[in-house]
Structures
1.
Amino acid sequence: MAAVLRRGFRLVSFGSSQLLCGGCKHGRTSSLSICSTSSRNSSSSSSSSSSHVKVDLDGSTGIAVVKFQSSPVNSMSLDFLTELCISLEKLELDRSCRGVILTSALPKIFSAGLDITEMYGKNPEHYAEFWKSVQEIWLKVYGYSKIAIAAINGSSPAGGCLVSMACDYRIMADDPRYRIGLNEAQLGIVAPFWFKDTMVNTVGFRTTELSLQFGLMYSPSDALKIGLVDQVVPEENVLSTATETITKWLAIPDHAREISKSMMRKPMVDRLLASRESDIKNFVNFITKDSIQKSLGFYMNSLKQRKA
Ligand SMILES: CCCCCCCCCCCCC/C=C/C(=O)SCCNC(=O)CCNC(=O)[C@H](O)C(C)(C)COP(=O)(O)OP(=O)(O)OC[C@H]1O[C@@H](n2cnc3c(N)ncnc32)[C@H](O)[C@@H]1OP(=O)(O)O
């Protein structure tokens, strides 16, 4: 599993401007199976599926629906992150795709965030590889050249919230049982600077300050109030609303939208790119501390006991 994601962002010329363009370099064969519903023409549609991610691309609209399907809670393991990154990379390179909708195939959960078992009881090399894949998915989604909409059809703590915030627009299901937020502090861990900055850019400084220190999780209506999500709609309408929304974004000329997005986001992407290695070191130092391992162990047990 070593060297799964070994890439950085590259700059691609677009007219006189340079745009961010991601690419996941992966050193293993992807288990994605692909089937095309018509032969090679501009309106061909395709489906592909791996164990964690399912992709349906409608070639006639240019919209791809990327569904998380990692039972039981779409926790983001190294394999999940790798497959998601590869799928997004393929879509980014596919000229027939103009935008993606990220959503969940599982009931009640968008994503439970990072897979805690990847951060507990493992060795430093594993932690470093895992963290690199977390950086990778953020770089990929936050710097995505195409439109990315999160259709949040369930709870979305921590890493799930991060991926949603990295999208261009968020639509959440109106179910008061669902929660979204960066709850790291409640686990006894700390959201790194790029999680924090993504939230600051979404909801502002003061709300982020309170959210991070308390590890606040918001109901859909509260998330809407603070601007953590852009729309709250009945659950059955989440995907159709995301499709309607992305259609509006598609009406904007791609190059103008892409350059505008890059102008807003490139400084943050560059900041992480410039400090990837130190960020990995910080993570490994932090996560290997006895006190942090103890907190995570305690949290995992509490999740299991909640069920009992
Ligand atoms: C100077 C500054 C220094 C700073 C340095 C910083 C360095 C960086 C530090 C580290 C940063 C890490 C950032 C972390 C980000 C994260 O994403 S951490 C993960 C946070 N996620 C959560 O807290 C969610 C926990 N889960 C839940 O709340 C619930 O499970 C749910 C998602 C709401 C679903 O509930 P329900 O449907 O009732 O399912 P459950 O029964 O609870 O769960 C089913 C099984 O799944 C397991 N599970 C749940 N979540 C996770 C997870 N995130 N990872 C792994 N496994 C998970 C759960 O234990 C159940 O397992 P079983 O009992 O075995 O069935």
Note: The pocket of LEDWP2DD is lined by residues 72-73, 75, 108-109, 112-117, 155, 157-159, 183-184, 187, 189-192, 282-283, 286-287, 303-304, 307 (CB under 6 Å).
2.
Amino acid sequence: MKIERIELGLLRVPLKTPFKTALRTIDAVEDVVVRVHTDTGHIGHGEAAPTAVITGETRGSIIAAIDQVIGPRITGMEVADLNRILQVIHTSAERNTSAKAAVEIAVYDLWAQLYGAPLYRMLGGGDPVITTDITISVDYIDKMVADSLAAIDRGFESLKIKVGKEIGVDIERVKAIYAAVEGRARLRLDANQGWNAKQAVWAIRALEDAGVELELVEQPVRARDIEGMRYVTERVHTPIMADESVFGPAEVIDLLRMRAADIVNIKLMKTGGISNAIRVADIAALHGVECMIGCMIESSISVAAAVHVAVAKADIIRKVDLDGPSLAQYDPVDGGVTFNESEISIGDAPGLGIREIRGLQPLTA
Ligand SMILES: C[C@H](N)C(=O)N[C@@H](CCC(=O)O)C(=O)O
Ligand SMILES: [Mg+2]
């Protein structure tokens, strides 16, 4: 099975409600889809989310990186030579992690198809059913309480509450949600870099003192402020999770050596795909640190790949934030992984199992 050409498309799926964080507001999945064609007629699927505020990538930069840099280098290569292809993808450019992720995911999809097995089995196997949390956007307090209760009605038992705006209001937001859902859902907070280190310690201690039980607080301070991450981690009881501070293996080694977080959030769009996601998980495990697997605003193409990784690395990846498809108005993918609110399950189809993507706008051939 040889790679013949790479086709790019644009996918737009409106969200049920605008997704609001301390970093941005967005109302649709607007991702670049990769279809890697082979001489056997098999097609591998991948997806890249342009999240400029986190990875620095835009739709244009992703298209250019794949079309002009990564694509031409892997064309003609044998899918069976997976490790060589991965090396070419990762040495073809610095950064551009979402562009690399999209191509890597498509190549892994083909590699598993080549051997006729679902991808998670090729990655080591596991129980093909997992449970995700859902994100509650930062908003007015009453709206966040109502959204949290609606999520519980949909069957979600774990809520990821976005904060990181007006710190005093953040504390009130979390107290109000906790009072409304206590005993019915676990709460995780994600400040998306919105606080500084002293503010974070103050806010988290205020919540601890008020008896609010939090499973974790994600990325309280600026991505580059690793000292700040350590400052917060050392001073609060609540576990602190690194998200934007950690992209790939090198950052996770530095961060964990400094003991600057208790948990690591792995995202394929930050690691550059599956191979480094597995490395990050293994490095975290060596440090005795557990991981979450998360996503950007992505559809069920790239999130499916993250699900396969989550299943295969379930011993280390103990928390799941793969709610992209649940936030979207519909699932544009036929086949693949089944996203049924909080429950996500993988079938027996080879690779990612994607048969068709509805509404894909072709870009190049
Ligand atoms: C969608 C997921 N639950 C999430 O919150 N992901 C990111 C933000 C993604 C984005 O802005 O696209 C996170 O910070 O964890
Ligand atoms: Mg986050």
Note: The chain has two domains: 3-116, 121-356.
